[in-house]
Design brief:
It is a single chain. The protein starts with a strand and ends in a 9-residue tail after the last strand. It is built from 8 helices and 10 strands. Helix 2 crosses helix 4. The strands form 2 sheets. The protein has a 6-stranded mixed sheet. By secondary structure, the protein is of the alpha/beta class.
């Protein structure tokens, strides 16, 4: 796979991560854009890559030292933060899983104060090439923090150097997740400690889902997804829960509760 790292010159965290990559003498391709990357629709048409990693800042109302990874797209009509309405971007769940595990491992070894978490799928840009965001945050203090940027840079380099799709494809089940909060603690556990590799995660604030949403979740992967992981307690009220189950059963998807997912890899 041919990877490229994309960051915005207006994003201090993204540029900080790129500086750390350069200090590692990384030979990974880099592209810097002038404007915000969440609105860089179809940037994959301007680069030659099989997978795009966006290096970015993470911003949250509650200040915490956080490193995040997430896939992209929109579950509704709102495109204020880039992308197309009701459209998800393609993923590579095996690399998504591999990078998240690598980031957790390197962060733990450095004994840092940062917490590592997935985020539910959100925001743009719109792409036809598999991608994900890796972010440093959650405030200006962290955006300029060299230690956090180094953890991300080392994780990107190691994940790319050690990734072999065959290590995952013969033993890992690709699945999408529905339910729970934005920082999805149950899906963090699954991504780290199970034989499931996540594609997209739909948080509870995007419920109720539509037929179009489910079709996007099924199809936005190299192989058609047939398994869904449900955070049952995080599916909203009974009406929202029943609506989700009705559509999933209509598509004959294999439904597994997050509480029933095997949390130990073979």
């Amino acid at each position: 796979m041919k990877f490229i790292i994309v960051a915005s010159e207006k994003d201090p965290a993204g540029m900080n991560i790129l500086d750390s990559l350069k200090n590692l003498n990384s030979k990974i391709l880099i592209k810097i854009v002038k404007d915000g990357i969440i609105h860089a629709d179809s940037i994959d048409k301007l680069v030659e890559a099989d997978f795009i990693i966006f290096a970015s800042k993470h911003q949250a109302k509650i200040h915490s030292k956080t490193l995040t990874v997430h896939t992209t797209g929109n579950f509704n009509e709102n495109t204020e933060h880039g992308g197309k309405p009701n459209t998800l971007n393609p993923t590579n769940p095996f690399f998504f899983k591999h990078l998240f595990k690598t980031l957790n491992s390197i962060n733990k070894k450095t004994d840092s104060e940062y917490q590592v978490t997935l985020e539910a799928t959100h925001h743009g840009p719109f792409l036809e090439t598999p991608s994900l965001f890796i972010e440093l945050g959650s405030s200006e203090e962290e955006w300029y923090d060299q230690s956090g940027a180094e953890i991300i840079a080392k994780s990107i380099v190691k994940a790319i150097e050690t990734f072999k799709e065959s290590d995952y494809s013969h033993k890992v089940t690709e699945a999408f997740g529905i339910g729970g909060p934005h920082y999805c603690p149950n899906f963090n556990n699954i991504q780290l400690n199970s034989n499931f590799a996540l594609t997209h995660i739909c948080a509870n604030y995007n419920l109720p889902l539509t037929e179009e949403n489910i079709q996007e979740l099924i199809n936005k992967n190299k192989t058609k997804i047939s398994t869904v992981l449900l955070d049952i307690k995080g599916l909203g009220n009974s009406e929202q829960k029943n609506k989700v189950l009705e559509i999933l059963n209509k598509h004959k998807l294999k439904i597994i509760k997050t509480s029933d997912a095997k949390l130990k890899e073979d």
